[in-house]
Amino acid sequence: MATTLCCPHDASPLTTEHYEGGVNVDSCPVCHGAWLEQGELDTILKTRERAVAQSESPESDAVAAAYEMAKDKAAPAIQCPSCNEPLSREEFGFASRILVDVCPKGCGRWVDRGEIAALEQFYEQNRPAQRQLPSFLTAILVMLGQ
Ligand SMILES: [Zn+2]
Ligand SMILES: [Zn+2]
Fold first, then answer.
1. Is residue 85 included in any domain, yes or no?
2. Are the C-beta atoms of 46 and 128 separated by less than 8 Å?
3. CA distance 145 to 132
4. 118 alpha carbon, distance to own chain's centre
5. What is the average per-residue pLDDT within 73-99?
């Protein structure tokens, strides 16, 4: 086993939790953020896509998301729990308004509480087939039941 990782926000030892898709996520018992090693987030999102496809996906609250993003951008940089490099804050995907802290050395990504759910929702609403289409074309596809 690797050494115990600590939360970049409050230095609490992270606990390993089993998440969807057989992924082990190191999460903080204090602030409920989670450290995802490279590839783990993709596994969660892919698993989630199948699950959500069978049910109604909730509406996103764009105003709250924009507010959260502005707040996140103002926060100081945190360090990688694995290699202690400062994490760089990046927007996940295109115009998701969701910021994740990414290790420049590729160890993984830190996501704050609620952000995994937001990422899942964003991923669900932006299927690869529709992402690049102009809105009028998307509307036509919707009318065609695509
Ligand atoms: Zn924490
Ligand atoms: Zn790192």
1. yes
2. no
3. 18
4. 7
5. 83
Domain span at 45:
15-143
Instruction: Looking at 92-134, list the stretches that DSSP marks H as alpha helix, in order from N- to C-terminal side.
Output: 115-125, 128-131
Q: What does the block give as tokens for 16?
A: 């390993």
Ligand nearest to the CA of 7: 1
Cα of 52 vs centre of ligand 2, distance in Å, is: 31
Please name which ligand lies nearest the alpha carbon of 101. 2
What is the per-residue pLDDT across 95-145, written as a single tens digit (0 to 9) for each?
777 888 999 999 999 988 888 778 878 877 776 654 455 566 666 666 676
Please say whether the dihedral angle defined by the alpha carbons of residues 123, 55, 65 and 44, taken in this order, is positive or negative: negative
In a domain, 108, yes or no: yes
3-state secondary structure of 62: helix
Tokens describing residue 91? 């927007």
pTM value?
0.62
Query: What is the count of structural domains for the chain?
Result: 1
Closest CA relative to residue 98, chosen from 77, 67, 127: 67
Residue 5 within any structural domain of the chain: no
Assess if residue 117 is contained within a domain.
Answer: yes
The amino acid that residue 4 corresponds to is T
Q: How many A from CA of 135 to the centre of ligand 2?
A: 38
Q: Can you tell me the distance from the alpha carbon of 14 to that of 108, in angstroms, rounded to the nearest whole number?
A: 14
- According to DSSP, the residues that pair with 73 across neighbouring strands are none
